[in-house]
């Protein structure tokens, strides 16, 4: 249809094309009208409650069911299930049900059993015990962090309760470190060779324990920690074998000149030169002042 309108001089001219009026061609206008109709339909559906109130849970049609991790897609359970096993403590005349994720020592201490231990990190061997059951001991206990027992000792039934986790029921005899230390794969215990001490003069040195508020004479063959504990002083420590660093202290000078370490596996040479020492394996070689509780400070170097 040819739309026209009159001009000022009375002549008619064609009406402006719709593209000129709106700035849109007909195809674009058609797509916009279609999308507007779709939006209107959604609004109408919302008003009628067809779309729901948003409280529904679960996947929408066509989406996969979410996996919550408790079962594998084929219906089997995921690995890592915690089991409980009966562990009989023969000397203590007690049987405990211990989870497979709990160290035997931790369970014993929770039950207030008095069993030997010290470092609690698998290093010192003080918690060494022996499994008395027949069979392969490696199938009864799994170690996580053993740094003391050999494979032969473990195969013979020796275990560390501090880093040993049950994998079956078994009976246990605690306090057998000396027996394990003298064990030989042949099945007989070895008699340690006699050792003779080399002649040497034992000296004593005056050590001021600053935090404890006392000064005592400590022999050159006595660890600084042992001397302090003999005085019933409260001093930080844990492993007592130079590994954990909990007993780190500081002397007023070069630690390498004032203290001799026997078994240090924690401090670096630089830290020792800065005056940091381990009291559990540190022996005095001169007089000095000692400040305990310096582990965090030493760790910054």
Distinctive features:
2Fe-2S, alpha+beta, disordered N terminus, 2Fe-2S_ferredoxin-type, transport, Ubiquitin-like (UB roll), 301 residues
Summarize this entry quickly.
The chain has nine helices and 16 strands.
Detail the topology: elements first, then pairings.
Layout (H helix, E strand, L loop, with lengths): L3 E3 L5 E3 L3 H5 L3 H23 L35 E6 L4 E6 L4 H7 L17 E4 L9 E3 L7 H5 L2 E3 L3 E3 L3 E4 L3 H5 L22 E6 L4 E6 L4 H7 L17 E4 L3 H4 E3 L7 H5 L2 E3 L3 E3 L3 E4 L3 H5 L2
Parallel strand pairs: 3-9, 10-16
Antiparallel strand pairs: 1-2, 3-4, 5-7, 5-9, 6-8, 10-11, 12-14, 12-16, 13-15
What do you see in this structure?
This protein is α+β, with helices and mostly antiparallel strands. 22% of the residues lie in helices and 21% in strands. Among the domains are: 84-181, Beta-grasp domain (Ubiquitin-like (UB roll), Roll), CATH 3.10.20; 204-299, Beta-grasp domain (Ubiquitin-like (UB roll)). It is built from 9 helices and 16 strands. The strands form 5 sheets. It has a 5-stranded mixed sheet. InterPro entries: 2Fe-2S_ferredoxin-like_sf, 2Fe-2S_ferredoxin-type, 2Fe2S_fd_BS, Beta-grasp_dom_sf. Its cofactor is [2Fe-2S] cluster. Residues 1-29, 51-78, 177-200 are annotated as: Disordered.
Tell me, what is the CATH class of the domain at 84-181?
A: Alpha Beta
**Count of helices?**
9
**Beta-strand content bin:** 15-25%
What is the chain-wise order of helices and strands?
Answer: EEHHEEHEEHEEEHEEHEHEHEEEH
Please mark out the parts with pLDDT under 50 across 5 or more consecutive residues, or reply none: 1-8, 12-24, 32-78, 188-192, 195-199
Shape: elongated
What is the topology, as strand order, of the major beta sheet? 4-3-9-5-7
The CATH architecture of the domain at 84-181? Roll
Characterize the main sheet: 5 strands, mixed
How many E strands?
Answer: 16
What structural class do the secondary elements suggest?
alpha+beta
Q: For the CA atoms, what is the radius of gyration?
A: 39 Å
CATH fold group of the domain at 84-181 = Ubiquitin-like (UB roll)
Mean of pLDDT: 79
Q: Any idea what the CATH superfamily of the domain at 84-181 is called?
A: Beta-grasp domain
């Amino acid at each position: 249809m040819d739309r026209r309108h009159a001009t000022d001089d009375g002549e008619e001219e064609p009406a402006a094309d719709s593209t000129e009026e709106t700035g849109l061609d007909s195809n674009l206008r058609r797509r916009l009208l279609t999308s507007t109709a779709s939006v209107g339909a959604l609004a109408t559906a919302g008003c009628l409650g067809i779309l729901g109130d948003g409280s529904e849970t679960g996947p929408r049609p066509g989406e996969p069911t979410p996996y919550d991790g408790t079962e594998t897609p084929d219906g089997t359970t995921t690995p890592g299930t915690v089991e409980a096993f009966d562990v009989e403590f023969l000397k203590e005349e007690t049987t405990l049900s211990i989870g497979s994720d709990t160290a035997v020592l931790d369970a014993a201490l929770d039950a207030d059993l008095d069993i030997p231990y010290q470092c609690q990190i698998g290093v010192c061997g003080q918690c060494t015990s022996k499994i008395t059951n027949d069979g392969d001991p490696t199938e009864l206990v799994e170690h996580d962090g053993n740094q003391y027992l050999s494979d032969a000792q473990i195969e013979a039934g020796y275990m560390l309760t501090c880093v040993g986790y049950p994998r079956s029921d078994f009976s246990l005899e605690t306090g057998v470190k000396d027996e394990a230390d003298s064990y030989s794969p042949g099945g007989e215990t070895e008699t340690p060779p006699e050792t003779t001490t080399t002649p040497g003069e034992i000296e004593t040195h005056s050590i001021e324990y600053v935090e404890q508020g006392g000064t005592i004479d400590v022999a050159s063959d006595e660890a600084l920690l042992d001397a302090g504990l003999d005085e019933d002083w409260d001093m930080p420590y844990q492993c007592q074998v130079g590994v954990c660093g909990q007993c780190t202290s500081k002397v007023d000078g070069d630690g390498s000149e004032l203290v001799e370490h026997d078994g240090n596996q924690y401090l670096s040479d630089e830290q020792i030169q800065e005056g940091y020492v381990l009291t559990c394996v540190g022996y005095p070689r001169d007089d000095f002042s000692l400040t305990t509780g310096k582990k965090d400070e030493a760790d910054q170097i």
